[in-house]
Amino acid sequence: MRVLVAEDDPLIALGLAERLRSLGHEAIGPASDGARAIELAREQEPDLYLFDIEMPELDGLEAARRLADDGLRRPVVVVTGVDDPGLIERSIASGVSAYLTKPVDTRELQAALELAAARHAEFEALEAEVERAQQALEDRKLVERAKGLLMSALELSEQDAFRRLQLTARERNLRLADVAARIVEQQALLQPKQKPAR
Predict the structure, then answer these.
(1) Which helix (H) or strand (E) holds 6?
(2) Residue 1 in 3-state DSSP?
(3) Tens digits of per-residue pLDDT, 65-103?
(4) What is the C-alpha to C-alpha distance for residues 117 and 113, in angstroms, rounded to an integer?
């Protein structure tokens, strides 16, 4: 796994990078502040962020949030030397997957990396599931609208209109929603022509 390290203390940063390498990961950086971490993340596109919370200019939580907003959301493990319940709450609210306190133990680091990667994968799977459900709902609405247009324009029953949609989709090797979309796009053609007023 390619892990971006952001830590303002050079000795701790080098220690984290060395531990990552000993665990078989590639360490990127280290960045000495959140702004540099963002630059490195954009250049290197790592698999995971290992950020100190308290850094100059931009802290680790804010850096992770900005990266997520830019479409570079990754699993985040934060490291801190401060035992502050408020920081833990802020970390959770920022989407942090795992939290370590200094000094960092190698086994704890490995466990945190695995936990962060697993949580991130679960989150992405849930997001994809929600997206699929939303798309299915949109497709269903489109089919219903197209069915209504066919019923009114061709004076078909609901069942016959649906059958016609299915048949067209099968004949043209298209999804039902794609056929429905074309009907909705062409709905002006299906409207009965109005006789000009005299």
Answers:
(1) strand 2-6
(2) coil
(3) 999 999 999 999 999 887 777 777 777 777 788 888 888
(4) 6
What is the identity of the amino acid at 102? Answer: K
The span from the CA of 108 to the CA of 126, in Å, is 27
The helix or strand, by DSSP H or E, that contains position 49, with its residue range, turns out to be strand 48-52
CA–CA gap between residue 131 and residue 138 (Å, rounded): 11
Single-letter amino acid, residue 140: R
Cα-Cα-Cα-Cα dihedral sign, residues 144, 148, 154, 155 = positive
Buried b (16+ CB within 10 A) or exposed e, 157-167: eeeebbebbee
Q: How far is 100 from 119, CA to CA, in rounded Å?
A: 16
Judge whether 16 and 23 are in contact, CB under 8 Å. no
Tokens standing for residue 104: 């960092």
